[in-house]
């Protein structure tokens, strides 16, 4: 009995040493508050008193932070449909209280992450767009005055937040075209106005040490799907996922981890810092990252699942013969299978413990981040144009997620290391839309 116990203890201690772990600082959690308009609330075309919004970008972000083990608290009680930048600013000045009797200044002073979407209602009034008649009546002088005031309000809002909480990270959201079905001549007017509007928000962000979150290009990829109601400016839940992911690509949840085996001149240093700052990856108890260690298919699934904000619904059983609910990477594999990011083998297995190869990685990353061909000429001497992985490798290279090796090869059957996957993920998340 004693001998069996000793073997068990040794096995357990060995497992602890081998598994990735986090430092004390990485265990700290964030308080998150969302301020602003109906987008911060999460209003959709289907919202009603009986169908309250609970899957807006702020809800999805909070859920993702929680899944990453990083959420301490979440509050969107100071966001209201119809709010202008004036409304948000005045609430902070007046120290408005929510229904629970909590004050906005207290909430702001306690938050590490603050997202703001405000200004659209100001601008829409100046643009006077009639979605039913498909006409945009733009009063240029009024529009320019409105833009100037929005800039002043957002700047004042951000400065006051910083006075209350100098350490808070502020994220100012840009806006998308809410009327993608307008005739081309009307759409051009709105497009030019939108460029100016977003430039004002970005300039404010740059001037007050906040982060600008661009969403326009991401929404344009499939705006008719994300904005299903021609008379409603609000996205559906799928559209809110797009907004949430644009936020997450900018958000920092913790300080980057320092690893004793990742020097400053390491090729993947910046990528590893970026991912650890979002709690997507972590190191080991001995202070190492083990950058040249191979990644299994299950581990890769976990890292990718942590890199993307999905809806809040539990995923379906992936129905792989070797992936069951007690499998450590079950949730990640189930989610990625449901999202058609990964698939298995012909025998019905996923083989989560097998090393991930570079050709498999190419397919998974392209699917995960919806990467598209850039129509550039990239060739690898060891990638067969008739092979199943060819189109994925091409798209990956065209987006400069990888350039292959110096000898002109891609080495598709080579196993992926932790440093390589970190670089692939960070580059994919950072691609400009």
Automatic annotation (TrEMBL):
The keyword Lipid metabolism does not apply. PANTHER family: OUTER MEMBRANE PROTEIN ALPHA-RELATED, S-LAYER PROTEIN _ PEPTIDOGLYCAN ENDO-BETA-N-ACETYLGLUCOSAMINIDASE. Residues 255-318, 320-375, 376-433 form the SLH domain. This is S-layer homology domain-containing protein. Keywords: Signal. InterPro entries: Cell_Envelope_Struct_Comp, SGNH_hydro, SGNH_hydro_sf, SLH_dom. Coiled coil: none annotated. Residues 1-25 form the signal peptide. It holds the Pfam family Lipase_GDSL_2.
């Amino acid at each position: 009995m004693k001998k069996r116990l000793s073997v068990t203890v040794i096995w357990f201690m060995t497992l602890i040493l081998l598994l990735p772990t986090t430092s004390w600082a990485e265990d700290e959690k964030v308080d998150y508050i969302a301020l602003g308009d109906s987008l911060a609330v999460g209003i959709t075309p289907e919202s009603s008193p009986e169908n309250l919004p609970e899957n807006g970008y702020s809800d999805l972000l909070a859920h993702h932070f929680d899944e990453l083990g990083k959420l301490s608290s979440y509050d969107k009680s100071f966001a209201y449909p119809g709010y202008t930048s004036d409304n948000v600013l005045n609430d902070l000045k007046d120290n408005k209280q929510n229904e629970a009797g909590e004050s906005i200044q207290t909430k702001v002073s306690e938050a590490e992450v603050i997202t703001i979407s405000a200004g659209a209602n100001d601008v829409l009034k100046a643009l006077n767009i009639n979605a039913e008649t498909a006409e945009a009546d733009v009063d240029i002088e009024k529009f320019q005055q409105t833009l100037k005031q929005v800039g002043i309000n957002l700047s004042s809002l951000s400065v006051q937040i910083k006075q209350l909480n100098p350490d808070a990270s502020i994220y100012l959201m840009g806006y998308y075209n809410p009327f993608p079905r307008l005739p081309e001549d009307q759409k051009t007017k709105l497009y030019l106005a939108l460029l100016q509007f977003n430039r004002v928000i970005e300039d404010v962000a740059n001037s007050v040490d906040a982060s600008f979150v661009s969403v326009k290009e991401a929404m344009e990829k499939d705006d008719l799907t994300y904005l299903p109601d021609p008379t409603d400016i609000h996205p559906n839940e799928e559209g809110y996922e797009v907004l949430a992911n644009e936020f997450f690509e900018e958000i920092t949840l913790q300080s980057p981890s320092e690893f004793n085996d990742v020097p400053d001149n390491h090729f993947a240093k910046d990528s590893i810092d970026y991912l650890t700052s979002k709690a997507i990856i972590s190191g080991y108890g001995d202070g190492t990252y083990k950058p040249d260690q191979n990644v299994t298919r299950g581990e890769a699934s976990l890292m990718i699942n942590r890199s993307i904000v999905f809806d809040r619904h539990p995923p379906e059983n992936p129905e792989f013969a070797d992936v069951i609910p007690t499998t450590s990477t079950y949730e990640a594999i189930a989610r990625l299978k449901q999202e058609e990011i990964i698939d298995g083998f012909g025998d019905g297995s996923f083989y989560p413990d097998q090393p991930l190869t570079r050709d498999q990685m190419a397919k998974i990353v392209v699917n995960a981040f919806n990467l598209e061909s850039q129509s550039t000429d990239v060739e690898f001497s060891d990638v067969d144009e008739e092979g199943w992985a060819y189109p994925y490798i091409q798209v990956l290279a065209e987006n400069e997620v990888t350039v292959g090796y110096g000898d002109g090869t891609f080495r598709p059957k080579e196993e992926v290391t932790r440093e390589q996957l970190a670089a692939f993920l960070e580059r994919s998340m950072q691609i400009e839309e």
